[in-house]
Design goal:
The chain contains three helices and four strands; from the N terminus they run E-H-E-E-H-E-H. The chain is an alpha+beta fold and 102 residues long. It has one domain. The protein is globular. Bound molecules: zinc ion (ZN).
Length: 102
């Protein structure tokens, strides 16, 4: 992984890791709809926020980076999208978050 000084912080940001993540992982185990930041199950998945990540482990600016241009813009391939809970969503700038329109 590149160091932070080499990354373009406009295109990518670090994934927020909750201090209770390990505890929640033990408590809840693996769950399909769990917050990637804190491992807490997400009850209302249809209204949850999502983040798009690359294989370098960075969160991608949803306004600029798409599945198609992830590798050319950030140097890593897309790893897909992951749901996050409302509390953890507050740790990200809004351009790194999106919601699906069901
Ligand atoms: Zn969370």
């Amino acid at each position: 992984m590149e160091t932070k000084s080499q990354t373009n912080t406009y295109l990518v940001c670090e994934l927020y890791i909750s201090p209770v993540r390990d505890r929640n992982e033990e408590k809840y185990g693996f769950n399909e709809n769990q917050c990637i930041c804190c491992k807490k199950p997400i009850k209302d998945i249809e209204n949850s926020y999502w983040i798009h990540m690359n294989e370098g482990g960075y969160v991608l600016n949803n306004k600029i980076v798409t599945e198609e241009n992830t590798e050319s813009l950030t140097g890593y391939r897309s790893m897909g999208c992951f749901p996050i809970g409302n509390e953890c969503a507050k740790k990200f700038k809004k351009e790194f978050l999106f919601k699906y329109n069901y």
